[in-house]
Design goal:
The protein is globular and about 60 Å long. It has about 350 residues and is of the alpha/beta class. It has 2 domains: about 170 residues, Rossmann fold (3-Layer(aba) Sandwich); about 180 residues, Dehydroquinate synthase-like, alpha domain (Up-down Bundle). The longest helix has 21 residues. The strands form 4 sheets. A 4-stranded parallel beta sheet has the order 4-3-5-6, with helices on both faces. The protein contains 14 helices and 11 strands. The N and C termini lie far apart (about 50 Å). Bound molecules: glycine. Glycine binds next to loops.
C-alpha cells in the first residue's frame, strides 16, 4: 500500500476523514475499527463492480476484524436509483437483522453511493454509512458532502437526504478498470473544480494532460486529493446549501441537467457537465464576466482531455429553457446559473433573461 493522504471534512460532531491511497481497500477494516461497537456491516455494490472484486476485498477486510458482513449487489446503472430498489434493500436489511449499531458501506460509483446512503438514512430512521467510491466521478464529487438520494421517473435526485458518512476510503487503483466514457465523465467534474473554483488546480490539470489521459496513478492521486480538499472546504462552509456557497459546485449543471433529461440519461452526467460548463462560459462572455480568451482556453482544455464541448443533436432550446426554469436548484421558475468570472472564480447569477440564452443554445 502506498502513502495515504487524509483529508478532513470539518462538520463538528459529523466530521470525518477521506483516506486516499493506492491498493488500500484492505485498510478498511482498521479504518472502521474506530467506530466500534459495530453489530454488523452491509456492503452494497452493483453487478459491474462486483466482477472486479473490490466489494469482496472490503468485505474480507472487515470480516477479518470479527464483524459479521453481508454483501448485497443490485443491477448496475441509474435504473437502480429507484424507490423499488431501495424497498428491496430495506426488506433485505430487515431479514438480515440490521440494527442501529450496523454500518452500511457503498462500494461503487455515484448510483451506489447515493442509493446506499439513502437506504442508510431511512432504514430504522438512520443507520451509519461509509463510502468506498470506485469511479472518478464518485471519488471527486458524489461521495463527499453527504448528499444521498434516489430518482423519480422524471426528476433525478429528487428524493433524498443529507447523511454525512463515517468516512470515505478512496483506492486510486480502482480507476484503472473504469470504462473510458465513465473516466471521461469523472473528468467533466474535475474540470469544473479547476475552471470555476481553483486556478491552481486548473494549472495542474493543464500541465498534465498527457498523464491524465493515460491515467497515471500519481497525478490522479494528486487531482482526486485536490478536488476532495476543495469540496471539503465548501461543504464545511455550507453543509446544507443554504448560503450560496455550496451551490457554486454546480458550475455547468443547470444546462447539464436539461441535456441529460432530453437524452433520456444516455448522456453521462460528467459529459453533460462538460458541455454545460462551456455553455455557462459562453453565457458569461455574453454577460461580460469573461472574455473570448477565457472561453477559447476552456474549450481547448476540454478538447485536449477528450471532453465534449458541443450541444448534442436532438437538444431543443425551448425545452432546454423550460427544463432549466424548473431545475431542482431554481427558485420561483427563474433562470439561475453559476457563471465564471475568471479562472478559478465564479458567482451565482439569478434571473437571467431567456432571450440571451437563444444565442448560447
Ligand atoms: N455535487 C454537488 C454537491 O455535492 O453539492
Amino acid at each position: 500500500m502506498s502513502d495515504l493522504q487524509i483529508i478532513s471534512v470539518s462538520l463538528g460532531n459529523r466530521s470525518y476523514d477521506i483516506e486516499i491511497g493506492s491498493e488500500n481497500l484492505e485498510h478498511i477494516g482498521s479504518f472502521l475499527a474506530a467506530f466500534k461497537p459495530i453489530s454488523s456491516v452491509v456492503v452494497v455494490t452493483d453487478e459491474n463492480v462486483i466482477h472486479y472484486d473490490y466489494a469482496h476485498q472490503v468485505a474480507e477486510s472487515i470480516a477479518e476484524t470479527g464483524i459479521d458482513v453481508h454483501l448485497l449487489s443490485v443491477a448496475a446503472g441509474e435504473q437502480s436509483k429507484t424507490v423499488e430498489t431501495a424497498a428491496t434493500l430495506w426488506e433485505t436489511l430487515l431479514e438480515e437483522k440490521i440494527d442501529r449499531k450496523s454500518v452500511l458501506i457503498s462500494v461503487g460509483g455515484g448510483v451506489i453511493g447515493d442509493l446506499g446512503g439513502f437506504v442508510a438514512a431511512t432504514f430504522a430512521r438512520g443507520i451509519r454509512f461509509f463510502q468506498v467510491p470506485t469511479t472518478l466521478l464518485a471519488q471527486v464529487d458524489s461521495s463527499v458532502g453527504g448528499k444521498v438520494g434516489i430518482d423519480l421517473p422524471k426528476a433525478k435526485n429528487m428524493v433524498g437526504a443529507f447523511l454525512q458518512p463515517l468516512g470515505v476510503l478512496i483506492d486510486i487503483k480502482t480507476l484503472q478498470t473504469l470504462p473510458e466514457t465513465q473516466y471521461q465523465s469523472g473528468l467533466g467534474e474535475v474540470v469544473k473544480y479547476g475552471v470555476a473554483l481553483n486556478a491552481g488546480l486548473f494549472q495542474l490539470l493543464e500541465t498534465n494532460i498527457e498523464k491524465i489521459n493515460v491515467r497515471d496513478s500519481q497525478i490522479l492521486k494528486q487531482i482526486v486529493a485536490e478536488c476532495c480538499r476543495i469540496k471539503a472546504t465548501i461543504v464545511a462552509e455550507d453543509e446544507f446549501e443554504t448560503t450560496g456557497r455550496r451551490v457554486l459546485l454546480n458550475y455547468g449543471h443547470t444546462f447539464a441537467h436539461a441535456f441529460e433529461i432530453q437524452s433520456d440519461f444516455a448522456l453521462l452526467h460528467g459529459l453533460a457537465v462538460s458541455i454545460g460548463s462551456i455553455c455557462a462560459a459562453r453565457l458569461a462572455m455574453r454577460m461580460g464576466f469573461v472574455d473570448e480568451i477565457f472561453l477559447k482556453r476552456q474549450i481547448s482544455f476540454h478538447q485536449a482531455l477528450g471532453l465534449p464541448t458541443e450541444i448534442p443533436d436532438g437538444i431543443d432550446w425551448l425545452q432546454t429553457i423550460e427544463l432549466m426554469r424548473h431545475d431542482k436548484k431554481s427558485e420561483f421558475g427563474k433562470l439561475r446559473f453559476v457563471l465564471p468570472t475568471g479562472l478559478g472564480s465564479c458567482r451565482l447569477v439569478d434571473n437571467v433573461d431567456s432571450q440571451i440564452l437563444k444565442h448560447i443554445l
